[in-house]
Amino acid sequence: MTRLRGRLLVLQVLVIAMIVILVVRLWQVQVVQGSRFVTVATETRTREVRVPALRGAILDSSGRPLVRNRTTLVVSVDRGRLERMKDGGDAVLRRLSTVLKVPLSKLKQEIRACGPGVSRPCWPGSPYTPIPVANNVNPRAALQILERQEDFPGVTADIQALRDYPNGKDAAQLLGYLQPVTQSELEKREGLKANYSGVDLTGRDGLERTYDSALRGAPGLRNVQVDRMGKVITVNQQSDPVPGDILVTSIDANVQRIVEKSIDQAMQEVPNSDGAAAVVLDIKTGRVIAMASRPTYDPKVWTGGIAEKDYRRLLSDKSGKPLVSRAIAGEYAPGSTFKISSVSAMVADGQPLHGTYQCPGAYTVEGRAYPNAGGMSLGAISLHEALVKSCDTVFYRAGYEEWLRDGGKVPKSKVKEPMPTMAKAYGFGRRTGIDLPGESAGRIPTRGWKRDLWSSTKDEMCRRAKTGYPEMKDQSRAAFAKRLAHENCVEGAIFHAYEAVNLSIGQGDVLVTPLQLARAYAALLGDGNVRSPRIGWALMRPDGSLKQEIPVPVEGHLPINDETREYIRKALSEVPSDGTAAGAFRGFPMNVVKIGGKTGTAEVYGKEDTSWFASFAPADHPRLVTVVMVAQGGFGASTAAPAARRIWEGIFGLGKGDNSKPVKPALPDGKPVTRLPAISRDNTQ
Amino acid sequence: MTEAIGIRRGSFASRVVGRGSVVWRMDWLLFGAVVALSAIGTLLVWSATRTWSSIEPTGMAKKHVLNLLIGLALYSAVAVTDYRWLRTYAPVLYGIAVLGLILVISPMGSTINGHHSWILLGGGFALQPAELMKPALVVILARLLVPVSEKGKKKDRPRASGVALSLAAAGGAAALVMLQPDLGTTMVLMATTGAIIVFAGIRKRWVVAGVLLTALAGAAVWSMGLLKPYQVARFTALIDPSSDPRGVGYNSTQALVAIGSGEVFGKGLFHGGQTTGRFVPEQHTDFIFTVAGEELGFVGSVTVVALLGVVLLRGARIARMCGDRFSALVSGGIVAWLAFQTLVNVGMTIGIMPITGVPLPFVSYGGTATFANMTAIAILQAIHLRSRPV
Description:
heterodimer; A: 685 residues; alpha+beta; Penicillin-binding protein 2a (Domain 2); 7-stranded mixed sheet; 5-stranded antiparallel sheet; 37% helix; 19% strand; B: 390 residues; 3-stranded antiparallel sheet; disordered N terminus
């Protein structure tokens, strides 16, 4: 028994040792490290739930919605939760597929992360946000998911607001679109990572992007206690979401509609055309009344995640990149519409406003004849007539002589460059600064520009001038390329006479955007101030009170006197009645509303001409400018001018409706809305 | 003590409550600790299961109380009985337990909560034969290791045949339990067997050899891949809980978090956020200690450990006071069994033992386990009452 008792004593000692070990370890865990575990426990148990704020609507100048919200039941999947399951969430997805009646494979595609080699359908947003897999879910399915959380861990159904476009495709590029926030964007913004409910969308283009922070509002924060299944047990504290501000724009939905229809018709009439744009500006305020671009698309495709097919189509060359607004990003030679700048330059340079100018059939520069369009020869004419009839040779001479005064090929130390300088004063060659992303600057060729271009390419050109192009198979082509390289190497910095000649009539290297042209005309016809156009007019709080009116900055003033501007306006006022656009405006009731304007037909190497018409009304006291551009549209008078005519008819209610009854004017007397609309909740949601 | 026990029998009432009666002389400290643990256990089970059903939040707690009452009845019956019948009927008890284990792995066995360990009795009752095997094995081993007739010759060491038979009996039982499979109970059975054989007096070199052999067998089992992957994972998770945070590591981490977050005084009964959120799995059975840790804090969890310590040390005391080898081995075996289970259960929740499915004695929810534990304490009491050192 002694040995047995001895060994039982060992047992007793072991038991005591065990108790000591357990107590010491408990001390360690609960007392020493306790606070650390409290933190961990709080982290596992509580979730920060972001309650997304209702995004503000975008309204037109009368308070009609351009973009509004519509609520829908959205089912979202938390991929992180699914991945943590043994089967990677297969069982859950299978059940979800049954309830939603969506194929399992489709669900799986939608929740995988986009990346190299993974194309849509896939999730481009943050992995921390739940991924919406179904919109417009019927309430019964949503209830099933919410009530049987044990069967659907990681799956939520909630009411979400989706963007709705009551006017369909109208102003698609201008309005922009929303896309899920990406991981990198999330990391830049604090406190968004922990959210697991709601989809964080951000404006990616257009007004949605420019005014994103205002439209977005502030999400509510809810600190909830969840159980292991992620089911909410208690809501700890809550800050309500602050709905986003409402953006009132100066866009008039009716005018926009008319503009859209008109350029649609222009595109149909000229099947070769591959793009078009139209801009209607309020001359007095510098605000945009309407702006459209072709080709276009239906912004509805973004809502609730875009399908691969649609996404690829939107980005493809074949579709003509409908996401790009030709009105602000399309750069085209302006042709004769540019002559307002050239005339201004001539007068500013000291040529007499009321003098006579020779308009021969062709003007010869350095042995080469530059003819008028159609060989028109008018003899001695005024500047007025030069504009109305669009006589190129008057401007050729002016451009050439100015070039000569600057020293010709060998420039003086200080050059005046009256035409490019005036063009820049009109706002060409730089971004207008409109409240839209993705604007192009256009281009005004100058001696300085030429020199800069040369210094950046001369090394390569001079090397090629020596080595030639041995890799080219065609001997004669290689020889030509070598000669060209030599020429560029030696003379590339020189601003040639022909360039000055081309510049004078808006050809050659001159590139402008339709919006730039519109604001140049607005500056000329208004108070001479060059403004940075704005689409956003005011931000209103959700309750309808004014938060902030968006000003239209004045960027500069035209360096010409009022007499000159008046002179040019009067000349342009004759164009639709007696000048180059007379054909397009035949039968237009000029006695009711007189339209002024200028046609432009710009040659494009290897393509059809770009058709332009810059116009304004009423011609005597201009209030609105309308610029229409049709790429590869042919003559300005034959394509763009008729399109502009249709727009004016719509604005002033001069046309006939489908049933030959007179239509109501979109803007009575052609006057844009001058007072901000009264906002009620109804027209924002 | 003037009266010789058992010679003159008084009335039943006086036998039960009178001076020198069973009630008077039983180890009240031991019994009190068991009652206290059961009471705490009931509250913890209640807390852990109150969120299961909004209609009847006390459903599981009530069932637990019912189990305890049945256990108490068993306790009373066994405690007042002469423990020596155990020696006689040990093979029968063992046989019943073996039969139960065979039934479990036969088509009659049932799976509850993912464990194939049950025989359904109907009416919502189920039996877990592996739990019954624990006391049965203790008794049969004690009998096998203490030869019946010794002709006055005090033998201090067990016969080799007895040891061999013991190993066979234990091996058979362990094998049957392993077939369920139930790694935790298998480990309890093996540890208890080892302890009893050592108590029985085998030579130290055999003890050393046994330890080495166990280690070797363990290594062999490990390397030959006899364990299921999840079982291996439980051990690797012990070494590094973050190695498998979604699987076993999850349980281990969550248990640690729940206990640690209780800090010194706990969050209060029914106020444990981790418990309410059911972050720890099997929280009313294998992980019941985490509820104590979170809601009752260091104070509460140490109280539970201390009460278990009281039970074990009183048990060890009873064992050491025994006048005969059989009762000493039985009580020593019971203490070893409960001590090992305590160590593994509490140890796994605080990250010093691998995750294995063993209940915490007297605290965890579970009918058969409660009956087995109560019976074991009753046997200790019976031995305490009747076996006096010579």
